[in-house]
Amino acid sequence: MVKILIKLVLSVIVLWFSCGYGQPTDLYVFNSDTQRQTFTELTQQLRCLVCQNESLADSTAPLAQDLRGEIYQQIQQGKTSDQVKAYLLTRYGQFILFKPKMTPATAILWCAPFIFLLAAISIVVLMLRRQRYLSS
Amino acid sequence: MWRYTIPLSIFIIMAIFLGFGLRHNPQQLPCVMLNKPAPEFAADNLLHPGQTVHNNLFIGHVSLLNVWATWCITCQMEHPILMDIAHQVKIYGLNYKDDPRSARTWLQQHGNPYAVVIADPQGLLGIDWGVYGTPETFIIDPQGVIRYKYVGAISPEVWREELAPLVKKWSKS
């Protein structure tokens, strides 16, 4: 029993450290903490279009570096989070957001997983009920 | 009999969706700049250093804007096709995140299909156009409005079936 516990703890430790903590090496200087926070939030909410499952914050692709630079410039100029997002959305579309806005077009994207889950649960419930009926 | 139809129909529905998914290229994003005027810019002329290029470049005729670079192998594959179609439509080049001198040398060595080449060594113009990879080609109508964007290398088939009809359509407007 103790052996199993030790193995479990060791695997958790190994898995914990196996996720990369690498940070891209740009150093941006901000005038205020709110600006730095806006920058961090934005770059984590936006998708890198080259490495499409990475955020702009994590990706080392040249386009991600360019866009981080552009976002930094705009924050320095005093633009708000929404203004920066609008700028990027007009050029790259909804796909650059990890969480696209809810519109008729994206409604299916948002709702489909819940619909499928509901369908799956109902099927399981129906089948269980039938089994109980048959075996009683 | 009944107990097989439900899993079977679920499987068929999933297979249809997954089938669509397989044919979907994640690199082909819908172009948000469609039917909007080309972004305003003032940039260096790659082949005539010192001259500035503005977006009145596009007015009066339909044109292609081809985003390319010397480090982009796919662009080099596309190059012979561009040389071919250059006499059918005006092609402008956007030299994206490239060294201008290498670009000039490359064009001298391999031939120049572009009426004008815009230099964008920092990629800032690219961001304005929503460029996220190379090669990309925009079709711009005689009023300077972006009408189409093609992501990837243009093959003879793509030109014949996808781009040439659109160029023809917009040259009449």
The secondary-structure element order of chain B is HEEEHEHEHEEH
Largest interface summary = A-B, 15 and 18 residues
- In one word, what is the shape of chain A? flat
Q: Tell me the total number of β-strands of chain B.
A: 7
- CA distance, first residue to last residue of chain A: 40 Å
Helical content of chain B stands at 25-40%
Give average pLDDT of chain B, whole number: 91
Describe it for me?
The complex is a heterodimer of chains A (136) and B (173). Chain A contains 5 helices and no strands. By secondary structure, chain A is mostly helical. In chain A, helix 2 packs antiparallel against helix 3. The relative contact order of chain A is 0.08. With 173 residues, chain B is an alpha/beta fold. Helix content of chain B is 39%, strand content 20%. Chain B is built from 5 helices and 7 strands, in the order H-E-E-E-H-E-H-E-H-E-E-H. Chain B is elongated and about 80 Å long. The mean pLDDT of chain B is 91. The chains are: A mainly alpha (136), B alpha/beta (173).
Features:
heterodimer; A: 136 residues; mainly alpha; 5 helices; 65% helix; B: 173 residues; alpha/beta; five-stranded mixed β-sheet; two-stranded antiparallel ribbon; 20% strand
What's the gist of this structure?
Chain A is mostly helical and 136 residues long. Chain A has five helices and no strands.
SSE layout and pairing:
The complex is a heterodimer of chains A (136) and B (173).
Chain A: H1 2-18, H2 33-45, H3 62-76, H4 81-92, H5 104-135
Helix pairs in contact in A: 2-3
Chain B: H1 2-23, E1 42-44, E2 52-54, E3 63-68, H2 73-85, E4 90-96, H3 100-110, E5 116-120, H4 124-129, E6 136-140, E7 146-151, H5 156-171
Parallel strand pairs in B: 3-4, 4-5
Antiparallel strand pairs in B: 1-2, 3-6, 6-7
